[in-house]
Design goal:
Chain lengths: ~700, ~120
């Protein structure tokens, strides 16, 4: 009966990822302090726990590979191996492969061929240390079928007979005991040890077959036999052994003394078993001493945290959202003329609901540490690859923001860091000749500002190379080839955000895919955020990303169109206008107006949404929406106003509806669809030209 | 009355899997401990009939915890939980007073057998 572990898969994943993260962090620490035994112990423990969890889930490849890593860590821990740069690099690689294995395993995908890495680890284990675990070797190579069940009677020599005879005088019986272990018994030798331990309580074992040494090294299949001198009845012995786990069968029989020759002589102490087993345990206890140096806990899984399925959390937040809406309804009904009592109760309800809403929102908040945690490793790898010396400072990793944001902001930040190291930071030699400290600094910081989170990636490199950006822009056809005017830093900044501009001529094994700054900007804007670059030539670059604290509640502008209410995220709305119909001109079949010397295309929202164009009066309500640098005026029926709305996603039944990013329930119970501003302007820019 | 069990393991995942198996088989899990120190503390507090004890744990390892518990209650029924490759430690744990041992990956039947046998 295998344990059903499928229901624990999520917990497994979360915890496994924590361990991988911890391994990465510890390894970075180890790199700086190669002799720090507490870090090594911590790593060993992480690998060990991961191994146990993986095997419990039945993820054998993951467990086996983790075991190899653990063996290497053990060598390091006991000082048989030194954490050289080479070893560290291999360990980093190992963690990466573990992560890959984990991902593939969780997705039930085919596992990659990792034999190369396995060999590499094996070489380390074999050459530099003696920690080779017998039991584990047997797992990989199925145990030899020697010593299979044909168990011959234990042959007794003169010494044995003497011993038995002497024992009989002292009214000890000699029992011959055959024991068969269950198939697939794990740690057979230890199981045998428990049998010996139990029997030694009630008597003396004078002989066993296979020999104690063979038993200890597990050079036997499932059967073994022994001779016990005891005063206990054989049924008691039987019961005693049967109460040990994993024993399939036991046969106890008395050795018939009549058959044995009685000889006189001294009692020998032929306790082969006694001599051998305790020896191994002394060796073991010294090993244990090494293993039990006080381990420091990081308290990652301390009791003060509970892991909750994200789905449940979202559910709760949804319900709270409903409650807030329903509260608003009740408040609206009751404003006119109600008793003091009802009013007081309502005020109370209002307060509690608001607090509840706040508390629920807090649940979605996670420290940005989750994202920042992988940067030390990234910076280390990149710095090594580019032969640069970089000190990474991380500030404010406890800063909290919405979980959904945390998941999405990682890639853009990685890209920024890559850019810094690839383009911003000079080589050690360059830095020296510029009079800068050879070690460069990248500072990643996060902090709250009002209802926003600010994330900064700053370096002390050379800043934007304006000339190079200008050249590239001309090459990519973003600037006319005869562009001669002065190209300012600000123009350079705007240029790198242009789609199709990407100065990366590099393809390294780490960066690989080259996403441009335009993609970074798009992602940030899709999160209702904002990105800003500050460049000081020769002194460094600072990129600031400003994100809202949460995406679950947003400020939106409510508008009417075809008697339907729509919500538009407020940050996309630049302004609202009243336009006289005679101001509208038609340029290449597109209605436009001129607004402050700029041509603004006009689109009827109803038409955009697929309704028949509505007839408006002479004065039109227009809202100007900007996304990704494109401005469009949308003609609407009516403007309702600003409001905070709780975003609800459309269910899977509807799937992705073009132009709609979600829905919200208004105070009066009506549903308003939320327009996706990035799509509103998309595809229009070309046709408008 | 159902026999009570205290589960000790430093990973929440292992505690969860053990808990589910143990509870499905008529035992009552009265507590969980994430390290040896906690296990000793909870043993005194909860007086469980049985304890499952992981070996490699922060603060205090399982073997030390077994010794500490045995000092307090020489009748304690402790089952040590080990992973592959911990043979010397398992033997140490048995010498320290553990009644039985389990090897990860756990097999539900084995877990229950060990608990039942330890209680007798």
């Amino acid at each position: 009966m295998k344990m059903d572990t499928s229901e624990f898969k999520d917990v497994f994943e979360a915890e496994a990822r924590d361990y991988l993260q911890a391994l990465n962090q510890d390894l970075l620490q180890l790199e700086n302090n190669p002799d720090d035994s507490s870090v090594l112990n911590e790593m060993f423990r992480a690998a060990h726990s991961l191994k146990g969890m993986s095997s419990t889930m039945g993820y054998q490849e993951l467990a086996d590979f983790t075991h190899q890593m653990e063996s290497v860590l053990d060598l390091l821990r006991v000082g048989e191996l030194t954490a050289t740069e080479e070893i560290n690099n291999i360990l980093f690689k190992t963690i990466d492969i573990l992560e890959l294995l984990l991902n593939k395993t969780l997705l039930n995908q085919e596992l990659p061929d990792i034999s190369h890495m396995v060999n590499q680890l094996n070489v380390i284990i074999k050459n530099k240390g003696k920690y080779i675990d017998q039991t584990d070797i047997e797992i990989s190579a199925p145990s030899s079928q020697s010593g299979q069940s044909n168990l011959a009677t234990i042959s007794l020599d003169e010494y044995d007979l003497e011993t038995i005879a002497q024992a009989r005088i002292e009214s000890f019986d000699a029992l011959e005991i055959y024991i068969r272990l269950r198939p697939k018994t794990l740690l057979k030798s230890v199981r045998v040890y428990t049998v010996f331990q139990a029997l030694e309580q009630v008597g003396t074992i004078i002989k066993c077959k296979p020999s104690a040494e063979e038993l200890e090294n597990e050079r036997f299949d499932r059967d073994f036999a022994l001779i016990l001198l005891t005063q206990e009845d054989k049924s008691i012995i039987e019961k005693l052994i049967n109460n040990i786990s994993e024993i399939e069968s036991v046969i106890v029989s008395e050795i018939n003394p009549e058959h044995k020759k009685e000889t006189e002589g001294r009692i020998v102490k032929p306790l082969e078993t006694r001599e051998n087993l305790p020896k191994s345990t002394t060796a073991a206890s010294s090993a244990v001493k090494q293993r039990t140096t006080p381990l420091q806990s990081k308290g990652v899984f301390a009791d003060k945290f509970t892991r909750v399925e994200t789905e449940r959390l979202d559910n709760l937040i949804n319900l709270v959202g409903e409650l807030v809406i329903s509260k608003t309804q009740v408040m609206e009904i009751n404003t006119n003329g109600s008793t003091e009592h009802v009013k007081n109760a309502l005020v109370q309800l209002d307060r509690i609901t608001t607090e509840l809403q706040y508390a629920a929102m807090k649940l979605r908040m996670v420290p940005i540490k989750q994202v920042f945690g992988r940067f030390p490793r990234l910076v280390r790898d990149l710095a090594q690859a580019h032969n640069k010396d970089i000190n990474l400072e991380i500030i404010g990793e406890e800063t909290e923001l919405d979980r959904s944001l945390v998941n999405k902001i990682g890639d853009p930040l990685v890209h920024l860091i890559r850019n810094s190291i690839d383009h911003g930071i000079e080589t050690k030699e360059q830095r020296k000749s510029l009079g800068k400290p050879p070690q460069a600094t990248i500072r990643i910081s996060a902090y709250h500002e009002g209802s926003h989170v600010l994330i900064k990636v700053a370096d002390d490199g050379q800043g934007l190379d304006v000339e190079s950006i200008k050249r590239t822009a001309i090459e990519r056809g973003l600037l006319p080839s005869n562009y001669n005017a002065i190209f300012t830093v600000n123009e350079a900044i705007n240029m790198i955000f242009e789609p199709g501009f990407s100065t990366n001529d590099y393809v390294t094994d780490i960066s690989g895919r080259g996403v441009g700054m335009d993609i970074v900007k798009n992602i940030v804007e899709s999160l209702s955020g904002h990105i800003e670059i500050e460049s000081k030539t020769g002194q460094g670059l600072c990129v600031t990303i400003k994100l809202p604290l949460t995406l679950a509640i947003i400020k939106a502008l409510l508008v009417k169109c075809q008697n339907q209410t729509y919500a538009i995220p407020i940050q996309a709305v630049k302004e609202s206008l009243l336009v006289n119909s005679n101001q509208i001109k038609t340029v290449s079949q597109q209605q436009v107006i001129v607004l402050r010397n700029e041509v603004l295309p006009l689109i009827d929202l109803a038409e955009f949404l697929g309704f028949a164009p509505s007839s408006h009066g002479d004065v039109l309500s227009v809202i100007v929406i900007e996304s990704q640098g494109v401005k469009i005026g949308f003609i609407i029926d009516d403007l309702i106003g600003q409001q905070e709305i709780v975003i609800k996603s459309l269910t899977d039944v509807l799937g992705d509806v073009y132009g709609i990013s979600g829905a919200t329930v208004l105070g009066d119970g009506q549903v308003a669809l939320i327009l996706d501003h990035s799509i509103l302007t998309k595809g229009r820019s070309e046709s408008i030209g | 009355m159902a026999k009570t069990v205290l589960i000790t393991d430093d990973t929440a995942f292992m505690r969860m899997t053990l808990r589910s198996v143990i509870q499905k088989n008529g035992f009552q899990v009265v507590g969980e401990a994430a390290d040896g120190v906690e296990a000793v503390k909870k043993y005194v507090e909860l007086k469980p009939d049985l304890v499952t004890m992981d070996i490699t744990m922060p603060k205090m390892d399982g073997i030390t915890a077994i010794r500490e518990i045995m000092k307090i209650d020489s009748d304690a029924k402790i089952i040590v939980c080990s992973a592959m490759g911990q043979k010397p430690m398992v033997i140490d744990a048995l010498n320290a007073g553990a009644k039985d041992f389990l090897v990860k990956p756990f097999d539900a039947q084995r877990v229950i057998e060990a608990l039942n046998k330890a209680i007798n």
